[in-house]
Structure formats: structure tokens, C-alpha cells
């Protein structure tokens, strides 16, 4: 519970109270907030309310316009339904619809029917064409040779299969192709039935031009860039100021999923973001829309926003010029001067003092700081003299201890002593003792003779074998050893004195606990172009499970706390990681009662590079 509270506290101090910021920054931020917040709050509330009211007003106005247009268009198209019924119920058309096959066709039937179509077309100037399309292949077209669009292609148009089978009309948007132009029309489509059998025998298509609908649409005023359009029940454009869109699917999915019989408004995100009001006509199955750029509705809102912005800007300038000048002169500038002097004190300049200009809290703070610096200067002088004497005494003591250590053991004394033992052993005929003494002397020289951290694997094996020979004298035939080292690996550099501590562990945890003869094997192999591996195995009793687990953990963490008989392995592991990095080092595997395997992973490097 305490930790979350501490995090919240730190957040408030850092981001709200500006704990680590300068005084001038705090004054600027807090003063700005005190000016901006009240003005901004009023501005935002006014802005939101005005925006909402303006959109509501536009939506209501658009709905009234759409309802009027919708009513006009419904009455207008109802007249064409009556015209279509007159055509279907005429005796001439009845005779044509009774034909069963095209073989019964006679011009005496088609000519009167064509005359009926012509009369209906001439009766109104907004009918562009009337077509009777029968399933038996008979086609009567009032345009005749002036129609450059094959009537047989009507079957392939998107609306053909959607025409109601109950005799109701359907309104679609199409284009008539004449000799010299294309004429967009609204087509009233109705199925035709045989008067005797009542079976569907064809289709009646009345093509209505846009003259009257354009007149109605032009009465719709929606500002400079607003416009009016109509969609059918499938979402295709029936009317649009751009004739190229007629018959195409509407681009916005928001306008195709509207509830039937409902009206409202929706914001579509096209290239200029438009507010669209709509109303659905149950009689026609059409949707009527008005669209206006959303930006045009927000002209008044932008003026309010501009006024708010200028008010905030002028208020801030006034606050900065009047308020910050006095604050800077009376508070910030004395504190800055005091801070500069504190930095001088930090680097050891204790001779200066800050001028006290007032008797307020800042003046009292400055005077107190001057006294503290003066007292600190006196104390430092006393401490300096005391430390100087203490350092002189410590130096004398260290020099004395160093001389004592240097006089304790001289390596040449050890070499000479081992040679004396070897000579005495040879005089007494004790070759074993002489060999041990000689090998020990060589091992001592190998370990102390140079300061390089690495040697060649050949040299390391040479002295490791010397150690094994000493142990052979000690343990006689209780163990045997083998080297399996390829010649191309012999000249690689290894950490100096790295094999002997590991081989020594073979004796410590194997021979002492086991009476059988053990086998020690040392081999090496390339792992890649940049690294190689040395493996030391013995067939002793292995390492106890709990000891092995602890040893692996220490190797993984590069710990130095593991002592006892494995201290040599830890020493080699640490030296390898120190010289070459954490990806190299020693790994151990052991099976109790069978064997122990130690792997040394090393890079292929030059010994000179390691020294550098």
C-alpha cells in the first residue's frame, strides 16, 4: 500500500508541483495556469455550446428542406405510376401481352402499341423514352433508331433481377445513349403480365429525364458548397449534381446502413468532412440527403475561438510584463546570486561573500549562509592540518610494513633450497625425491617467472604433465593419464596455470575416496573459427549432488565465496572471464560413481592483445 502512494506522491511532485524546476519556471507555469484556466474554461464551454446549437439548427433546417423535396418528388413520380397503368391497361398493349410466342407476332399488334407509347411520351416533356421488353424477344422502343443502347443489354444491368414480382414499380438510375450524347434518366420499371394467364411476360421501362428533379433540387439552398442527392434502396445514386456518379454505389458505408423510415444526420469523413442530413421515403424506397462542408458550419465557432485565443495571449503578456518583472527583481534574482555563490563554495572558493540587499526571508537566508561559509572556512583549515599529520604517519607505517614483507621470503631462497634437497637426494640415491624437488622448482619458476596472463597451450600442458609425474611418484599405479591434443591447437593461448588446479581436483575428489585405478584424460578441440574447448575427465567417484549444484551456481554467478577444495577451479574461472568476457569460462558435469567432466571454453586470441 505504501509503494503505490509513494509513486503517486512522486508523480504529483514532479509533474504538477514542478519540484525540481527553477523558480522562474514555476512562477511562469503557475501564473499562466491562473490566467489561462478561467478564460479557457469559459471559452471551451462557449465553444462547445455554440457548436452544438449550430449543428442542431443546421440539422433541423436541412430536415425541413428534405421533407419538402421528398414530398414534391413523391407526388411527381406518382404521376408516372398512373401513366404506366394507362399504358398497361390500354387495349393495344393488352393484345400484345397476350402473345404466347414470337411466331404469333404481327406488326398490326406492335404498331398500335408503339402509338400508345408515343402518345404517352408526347403528353409529357419530361419522358425521354418508353420501352416494352417482352420475354419472347419482342422489343418496342419509342426512341427506335435514335436509341444507341441495345435493349437486350437491359437484362445485364444491376437492377433487373430486383424488380418486384407483385406488379409494384421500381425506380432506378440509368443512362440513355443517343447518337451524339448520353442522357442520364430515372427509369420507372414495372413487370408486365399476360391478362389471361397472369404470368410475367416482360418489362415496361419509362425513362424520366432530370428536368423537374433538377428544378426541385436547385431550390435547395445549403450555403456556397452544399448540395442535394438521392440514393435508391440498394445504395446507388439516383440523383447527384455530378452526373458521372449516377447509377454508381455510394462511397460511404455510413450512408447505406440507415434505419428505414428514420431521419437524422451523420458526419462523413471524406476529403473535406461533411455533415449529411437524411430522410428515408417508405413510398419510393429512396433516401434523400443534403450535404454541407462541416467547416462552413464552424465559421462562427472559429471566430469565438480566435477571440478566446487573443484574450489568453494578451492576458499572459500582461502577467509576464507586470508580474514577472517584480517577482524576478525581488525574489528570483537574489536567489540566483545566492546559488552562484554556493557553486563557488562547492569547488572550494570560501573567500567571497554575498551582498545582503533586504531584511526579508531571502535577506536573512543570505546573511546566515555568509556566516556558515565563514565558519566552514575556519573548520577546513583546522581539518587540513590534522589530516596532513595523519597522512604522514600512515605513509611511514605503510613503508615499514612493505619492507617487512619484502624481507620475509625471497623466491631465490626457495629455488636454492629445492636444489639443495635434490642434490642431497641424488647423493643418497633417492631419485624419486630428487625428481619431485626438481619438478617443484620448475613449477615455482613457471608460476612466478613472467607477468603475462596467458601462455601457449603447449607450455601449459608441459607443466601440467610435470605435476602429474609428481603425483605419479606419490600415488604410483593408482591412476593413469592421457593427452589428446591436436597440433593445430597447441599454439593457442590459454590462461596461465589453468590446467593444474583442475587436474589437482581429480585427485582430491577421486583417488582419496576410491580404491580402483582412475583414468585422467585431457583433450582439446576447435568449436568454431573463434573459440576452442579443453576437456578434463576422470573416472573417479564423481562429485556429490549437493556440492555439484552449489559449484555450478557459483560458476554461473562468478562468485568468490566458495572455498575448500574447489577454490582453484573458481580462481581459473574468474581469471578467464576477467580476461575474455562472461561468455567464456568453466562448466562442470559429474555423474556420481562414474566420472567428472570439466570443460574450459576459450577464445582464439593473441597473447599480446590480452596483455594490452
TrEMBL record:
| EC number(s) per entry | 2.7.13.3
User: Which membrane topology describes this protein?
Assistant: Multi-pass membrane protein
The record's subcellular locations are: Cell membrane
Under PROSITE patterns, the record lists: HAMP
- Keyword set includes Coiled coil: no
Q: What are the alphabetically sorted keywords of the record?
A: ATP-binding, Cell membrane, Kinase, Membrane, Nucleotide-binding, Phosphoprotein, Transferase, Transmembrane, Transmembrane helix, Two-component regulatory system
Principal localisation = membrane
HAMP domain location is 329-381
Signal sequence annotation? none
- Output the Gene3D superfamilies linked to this UniProt entry: 6.10.340.10, Histidine kinase-like ATPase, C-terminal domain, PAS domain
Q: Which InterPro entries match?
A: Bact_2-comp_sensor_kinase, dCache_1, HAMP_dom, HATPase_C_sf, HATPase_dom, Sig_transdc_His_kin_internal
Q: Which Pfam family, any one of them, does this sequence belong to?
A: His_kinase
Name of this chain's protein: Sensor histidine kinase
Q: Which species?
A: Psychrobacillus mangrovi
Amino acid at each position: 500500500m505504501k509503494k503505490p502512494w509513494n509513486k503517486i506522491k512522486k508523480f504529483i511532485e514532479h509533474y504538477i508541483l514542478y519540484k525540481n524546476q527553477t523558480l522562474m519556471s514555476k512562477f511562469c507555469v503557475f501564473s499562466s495556469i491562473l490566467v489561462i484556466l478561467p478564460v479557457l474554461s469559459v471559452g471551451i464551454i462557449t465553444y462547445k455550446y455554440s457548436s452544438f446549437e449550430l449543428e442542431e439548427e443546421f440539422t433541423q433546417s436541412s430536415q425541413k428542406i428534405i421533407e419538402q423535396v421528398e414530398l414534391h418528388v413523391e407526388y411527381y413520380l406518382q404521376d408516372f405510376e398512373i401513366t404506366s397503368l394507362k399504358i398497361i391497361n390500354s387495349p393495344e398493349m393488352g393484345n400484345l401481352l397476350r402473345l404466347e410466342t414470337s411466331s404469333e407476332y404481327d406488326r398490326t399488334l406492335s404498331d398500335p402499341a408503339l402509338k400508345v407509347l408515343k402518345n404517352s411520351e408526347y403528353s409529357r416533356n419530361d419522358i425521354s423514352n418508353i420501352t416494352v421488353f417482352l420475354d419472347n424477344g419482342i422489343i418496342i422502343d419509342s426512341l427506335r433508331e435514335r436509341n444507341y443502347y441495345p435493349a437486350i443489354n437491359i437484362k445485364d444491368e444491376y437492377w433487373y433481377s430486383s424488380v418486384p414480382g407483385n406488379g409494384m414499380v421500381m425506380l432506378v438510375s440509368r443512362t440513355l445513349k443517343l447518337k451524339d450524347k448520353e442522357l442520364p434518366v430515372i427509369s420507372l420499371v414495372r413487370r408486365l403480365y399476360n391478362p389471361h394467364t397472369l404470368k410475367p411476360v416482360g418489362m415496361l421501362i419509362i425513362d424520366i429525364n432530370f428536368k423537374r428533379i433538377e428544378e426541385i433540387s436547385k431550390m435547395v439552398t445549403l450555403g456556397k458548397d452544399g448540395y442535394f442527392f438521392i440514393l435508391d434502396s440498394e445504395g446507388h445514386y439516383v440523383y447527384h449534381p455530378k452526373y458521372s456518379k449516377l447509377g454508381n454505389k455510394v462511397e460511404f458505408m455510413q450512408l447505406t446502413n440507415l434505419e428505414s423510415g428514420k431521419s437524422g444526420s451523420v458526419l462523413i469523413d471524406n476529403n473535406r468532412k461533411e455533415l449529411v442530413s437524411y430522410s428515408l421515403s417508405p413510398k419510393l424506397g429512396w433516401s434523400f440527403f443534403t450535404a454541407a462542408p462541416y467547416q462552413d458550419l464552424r465559421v462562427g465557432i472559429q471566430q469565438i475561438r480566435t477571440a478566446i485565443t487573443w484574450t489568453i495571449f494578451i492576458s499572459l503578456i500582461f502577467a509576464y510584463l507586470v508580474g514577472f518583472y517584480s517577482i524576478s527583481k525581488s525574489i528570483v534574482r537574489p536567489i540566483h546570486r545566492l546559488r552562484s555563490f554556493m557553486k563557488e563554495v562547492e569547488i572550494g572558493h570560501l573567500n567571497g561573500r554575498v551582498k545582503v540587499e533586504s531584511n526579508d526571508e531571502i535577506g536573512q537566508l543570505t546573511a546566515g549562509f555568509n556566516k556558515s561559509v565563514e565558519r566552514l572556512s575556519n573548520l577546513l583549515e583546522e581539518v587540513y592540518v590534522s589530516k596532513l599529520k595523519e597522512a604522514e604517519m600512515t605513509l611511514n607505517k605503510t613503508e615499514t610494513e612493505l619492507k617487512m614483507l619484502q624481507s620475509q621470503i625471497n623466491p631465490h631462497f626457495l629455488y636454492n633450497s629445492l636444489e639443495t634437497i635434490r642434490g642431497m637426494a641424488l647423493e643418497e640415491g633417492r631419485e624419486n625425491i630428487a625428481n619431485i624437488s626438481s619438478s617443484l622448482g620448475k613449477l615455482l619458476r613457471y608460476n612466478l617467472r613472467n607477468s603475462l596472463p596467458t601462455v601457449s597451450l603447449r607450455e601449459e600442458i608441459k607443466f601440467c604433465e610435470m605435476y602429474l609425474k609428481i603425483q605419479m611418484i606419490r600415488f604410483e599405479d593408482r591412476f593413469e593419464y592421457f593427452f589428446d591434443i591436436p597440433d593445430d591447437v597447441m599454439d593457442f593461448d590459454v590462461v596461465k596455470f589453468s590446467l593444474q588446479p583442475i587436474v589437482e581436483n581429480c585427485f582430491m575428489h577421486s583417488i582419496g575416496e576410491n580404491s580402483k585405478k582412475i583414468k585422467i584424460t585431457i583433450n582439446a578441440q576447435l568449436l568454431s573459427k573463434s573459440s576452442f574447448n579443453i576437456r578434463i575427465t576422470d573416472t573417479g567417484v564423481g562429485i556429490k549432488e549437493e556440492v555439484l549444484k552449489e559449484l555450478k551456481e557459483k560458476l554461473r554467478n562468478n562468485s568468490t565465496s566458495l572455498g575448500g577444495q574447489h577454490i582453484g577451479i573458481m580462481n581459473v574461472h574468474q581469471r578467464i572471464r576477467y580476461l575474455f568476457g562472461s561468455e567464456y569460462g568453466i562448466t562442470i558435469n559429474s555423474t556420481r560413481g562414474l566420472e567428472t567432466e570439466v570443460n574450459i571454453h576459450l577464445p582464439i586470441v593473441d597473447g599480446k592483445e590480452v596483455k594490452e
